[in-house]
Amino acid sequence: MIFEPVTYKGGVYRYEEIVELIEDLGGYIVQLQQIAGDIIIQALVPRADIEMMRQIAKPLNGTVTLSPLVGTEIAVVSPSLEIHHLPHASCDVAEYLRRFGAKTNMVGLARGFGKRIAQLNVEERDVINEHDCAIYVLGNFQECIHHKFNALRRGIQVPIILTGAPSKEDLQRCVDPQVEGYVGGMGRMAHRAKRPEELEKLEEMAAEVSRVLEVRRTEIAKDPISVMPPRLMQVILEKLPAIHEVTSPTPVTVQMAGLRIKLPYETYARDVRDLEIEHGIRVQDVADVLPSRMRTYIWVRVKPFSETNVMV
């Protein structure tokens, strides 16, 4: 069964019917938000049933749209968040990707400035590697990007999308080895993106991120993971009472091949490992439960089928 990421937007009137429909179709709800009188549901549903879901949503004045980044967590990396690097472009990137369903985290580097001294420390490297991909939001000068980027990418194992003011072709020429994606024409701005040409660049950036992550989904499908992260999230929400005490809007953040649980690792890691998924199969049988480098959170990395010989 092939699942597609979608977003449902509608009112509170009979929205429970959409929730029940997603569950009946065998889909997974990644996030449900109520903002004033509106309901926003991000979910993974079978591709063959999307049109039926749209038809059921019409009488409820709801809409169902494809959201290619639902169920992904993306790091937006800036050399720093000081005025020299003007955080506006980074904020625009992070906010715009959320419209497509992504969960984004800003990573402002401690020593990302300066051609000769730019570097990435171990903690920053580990934090970025806990995401599905990383977007490097760099500046205006090709020479600066050429000198700095190799130091800022050292040790990064997730796909990288590089952005900067030079054209896409110039970015490709100044980077060796190549990265997975490029978006040119996105340099520093002293204002939020609002002009048509600026919004077009953000659209191009979102499309490039979607393309890169679709390639990663294809690679994961060659050796499928042992359990789908949204299903694992449902197990945690049902069987780990402490998760309902977390005040974050996303106490469990779904990734393409894992998830982040916003509970202290030292206190709850054993409880997470012992959770039963079904028929005696526990979380520790299909995933690594690791300490996250983000605060004291728990990072769960699902193992591929080739390692476990288990599929749940």
Biggest β-sheet strands, sense, barrel? 5 strands, parallel
CATH class descriptor name of the largest domain: Alpha Beta
Q: Tally the helices: what do you get?
A: 11
- CATH homology superfamily name of the largest domain: Response regulator
- Basic shape: globular
CATH fold-level assignment of the largest domain? Rossmann fold
Task: Assign the structural class, choosing from mainly alpha, mainly beta, alpha/beta, alpha+beta, or little secondary structure.
Answer: alpha/beta
The CATH architecture of the largest domain would be 3-Layer(aba) Sandwich
Overall pLDDT confidence: 91
Distance between the termini: 13 Å
Tell me the Rg in angstroms: 20 Å
How many discrete structural domains? 3
Along the chain, the helix and strand elements come as EHEEHEEHEHEHEHEHHEEHEEHEEH
Instruction: Point out poorly predicted stretches.
Output: none
Tally of strands: 15
